[in-house]
Design a protein that fits this description.
Blueprint: E1 27-34, E2 40-43, E3 51-53, E4 66-73, E5 80-88, E6 93-101, E7 104-109, E8 118-121, E9 133-140, E10 149-155, H1 161-172, H2 181-188, H3 196-200, E11 203-204, E12 210-214, E13 223-229, E14 235-242, H4 244-247, H5 253-261, E15 265-267, E16 270-272, H6 277-283, E17 291-301, E18 307-318, E19 321-324, H7 325-334, H8 340-359, E20 368-374, E21 380-387, H9 390-411, E22 414-415, E23 418-419, E24 424-426, H10 432-443, H11 454-468, H12 474-484, E25 489-491, H13 515-528, H14 538-568, E26 575-584, E27 587-592, E28 598-602, E29 612-615, E30 620-623, E31 629-631, E32 635-644, E33 649-655, E34 657-658, E35 661-662, H15 666-673
Parallel strand pairs: 3-5, 11-18, 12-19, 28-33
Antiparallel strand pairs: 1-2, 1-4, 2-3, 4-5, 6-7, 6-9, 7-8, 9-10, 12-13, 13-14, 14-17, 15-16, 17-18, 20-21, 22-23, 24-25, 26-27, 26-32, 27-28, 29-30, 30-31, 32-33, 34-35
């Protein structure tokens, strides 16, 4: 289904900002941000300026906490407030060291944001000694109490800096490292045996060929595919998703904790799961040769890839085989192997659906995934670049089909003549203000953009991506194009998914690792059983899950950056070819071609060659005297000069490259002249 032609290019509205009323409400809700100096500011949605909070008025609030504040004074431009209560803590686990005293201990956090020391009673010390590095959980902090009280969760090994760094990245992003005792107790009570009465309620498809296709190191198998030929010549293809909502009851302590996390976080050396591992990797994981409870979309599809009919409902399956993407790719390429006939048919159908999707306006951004080869300590010893191949696309297309079908089905449901509240996954049309500079930049590489409608923009993007494939500027233009796009999010306001070209879309296929999928399962079950109970707070929950998704992505980027710095420390002083991946007034970033590791070339390191000015519209730095230009997408040679793990920062220096190969840097040349 294509996007509606009636949709406007952008929902950006010009003109003056709406003026807010001069008075502020007495009580406001927002997020507290504490600066390194110790001053606090509460960011309140819909207020043009944030509220100043002095350190004496934090009232047990810490950096990142969601708080309720009252206005203390409003003299001048900035209003001042007082924290009245902490509504939600961003984090309750911290890394730091223990300071022992007679009869008690204090925990001193290692943070760049000021926070008080935490009092640790001796019964909560868990064997820690003076000056040990530990992880502590904040247990309580009464509003009128003098100090927060905590408990040592674990003693950290001094030599395992990598493990500590990954844990700190997760904690900084607000993801707890451990599940509460209450949540684990609920998980432990879940019965593993599937009762006969439960099987009777479901469509039993255990006799139909079913398999999973996942990364080689995956343990949480969310989805499986079933396949059989029908007598009429069509194919019956089932997309079977782990029935997490059967095991995780709404609003119990396990469910509440899963909601707060909202997503699993995938770092290079670990997964921080949304649900306890016994549920993620055992109970709900669609492991081979085991009966599993699933929520399914079953389609009848013609050999041409046309959907003739579909069925949505609860099932029980039995996976016959667990494939890796690499194994399936080999079967596709060699046209031989276990279940080769079925896999080749599925791949043919997936490619037909993929082509149809692009014809109807989807944008074909390719995905390059950087994976680290790690040793037993978690240190990177190699970097692999993984691209999306047909085996990945096979799974992707059937998951997209299931997600879209569920969203289309539930978009038709009305409650009291109003649309049923439902967590759509939406992606808005491009913002013209962001699109025009990108189109101008792409034109310098010979690519023209038709910005007259959303459809022509999508067609222009696809043409550009096809033209740049394999060229030096490919990665830069892809990344810049993605940044130009609106961010996908969850909301009950269905504006469609521009990037996929779908009018209706949701996330249904990964409930083990995404909370919105669990919500979708529950709503779908309500509709199928005709027991609809609309959630009036669903939009608020959508905002929370969108925010947690962004936090997880930032944590994953930070962890990847840490691994890049760790890896490139091995190459200090060495020179590599790279592509300029970003430009700012203080320098430009270069991503090495070989490792995809990004570092900064500071403008200060270029001063002996020339003074450079930043031309924002051209994404470039230009020399005042020489006219030398450093522009996004340009190939350059760099030298690795510094690798700072604490800041997760790589510093490069530009190296001049001559026609006959790499010459010595201009610095060395100037030394010889002297």
């Amino acid at each position: 289904m294509g996007r509606k032609n009636s949709k406007k290019l952008t929902r950006h509205k010009g003109g003056k900002k709406q003026r807010h009323k001069s008075y502020a409400p007495q009580m406001l809700k927002g997020v507290l941000e504490i600066t390194r100096s110790g001053m606090g500011f509460v960011i309140v949605p819909d207020l043009e300026t944030d509220i100043l909070i002095r350190p004496g008025d934090f009232n047990t609030a810490l950096h990142g906490d969601t708080v309720r504040i009252s206005i203390k004074s409003g003299h001048g431009r900035r209003q001042q407030g007082v924290v009245e209560s902490v509504l939600q803590r961003k984090r309750t686990e911290f890394i730091g060291h223990i300071e022992m005293n007679k009869g008690f201990a204090f925990f001193v956090a290692e943070m760049d944001k000021p926070m008080p020391d935490i009092f640790i009673p001796l019964e909560n010390i868990s064997g820690a000694q003076d000056n040990d590095r530990v992880m502590v959980k904040l247990l309580s902090w009464e509003k009128d109490g003098k100090r927060p009280v905590g408990k040592v969760l674990s003693i950290l090994e001094a030599e395992n800096t990598n493990d500590v760094a990954m844990k700190e990245i997760l904690l900084e992003a607000g993801f707890p490292l451990q599940f509460s005792d209450e949540a684990l107790e609920v998980a432990a009570r879940i019965p593993e045996i599937i009762s006969a009465s439960e099987i009777k309620k479901r469509n039993d498809i255990r006799s139909i060929l079913t398999f999973t296709i996942d990364p080689v190191d995956a343990k949480d198998f969310d989805d499986a595919i079933s396949f059989r030929k029908l007598k009429n010549g069509n194919y019956e293809i089932g997309v079977h998703i782990a029935d997490v909502s059967h095991y995780v009851e709404a609003d119990n302590s396990l469910d509440k904790e899963a909601y707060q996390r909202a997503t699993s976080v995938y770092l290079p050396d670990r997964v921080n799961p949304m649900l306890p591992e016994h549920i993620s990797n055992v109970l709900c994981s669609l492991r081979p040769n085991e009966d599993k409870l699933t929520f399914s979309s079953i389609f009848q599809i013609t050999p041409k890839g046309e959907i003739k009919q579909y069925w949505l409902g609860k099932t029980i399956i039995h996976s016959d085989h667990r494939f890796t993407y690499e194994e399936v790719q080999a079967i596709i390429e060699e046209k031989a192997g276990q279940y080769a006939e079925e896999i080749l048919i599925l791949n043919d159908l997936a490619q037909k659906m993929r082509k149809k999707r692009f014809r109807h306006g989807a944008i074909s951004f390719s995905s390059q995934e950087v994976r680290f080869k790690l040793d037993e300590k978690g240190d990177p010893i190699g970097i692999m670049i993984k691209e999306s191949k047909e085996s990945h696309q096979l799974i992707e297309e059937f998951m997209l089909l299931a997600n879209r079908t569920v969203a289309e089905n539930l978009s038709k449901i009305k409650v009291n003549n109003k649309a049923l509240p439902f967590p759509y996954r939406v992606h808005d049309d491009p913002d013209e203000e962001k699109l025009l500079p990108f189109a101008a930049f792409a034109k310098k590489f010979g690519h023209t953009f038709d910005t007259s409608s959303p459809d022509t923009i999508a067609a222009s993007f696809n043409q550009l991506l096809q033209d740049v494939h394999g060229r030096p500027e490919q990665h830069v233009l892809e990344q810049l194009g993605i940044r130009t796009m609106a961010k996908a999010k969850y909301t009950i306001e269905n504006v469609g998914h521009y990037g996929l070209g779908f009018e209706h879309y949701c996330h249904f296929t990964s409930p083990i690792r995404r909370y919105p999928d669990v919500q979708v399962h529950r709503i779908l079950e309500q509709v199928l059983t005709n027991k609809i109970n609309p959630d009036k707070k669903l939009e608020e929950k959508c905002k929370h899950t969108s925010e947690r998704e962004r936090a997880a992505m930032e944590a994953e980027r930070a962890a990847n950056k840490y691994k890049q710095v760790q890896y490139m420390k091995n190459f200090l002083g060495e020179e590599f070819e790279g592509v300029i991946s970003g430009v700012a007034s203080f320098g430009f970033w270069v991503e090495t071609v070989e490792h995809k590791c990004e570092g900064l070339v500071s403008v200060n390191s270029l001063l002996e060659y020339d003074e450079f000015r930043h031309v924002e519209s051209d994404y470039s730095l230009i020399g005042q005297r020489s006219g030398k230009k450093f522009r996004m997408g340009d190939k350059v040679w760099i030298k690795v000069v510094a690798a700072n793990l604490t800041k997760r920062q790589l510093d490069y220096e530009w190296v001049v490259a001559g026609e006959a190969g790499i010459e010595k840097s201009s610095k060395e040349k100037s030394k010889k002249k002297k």
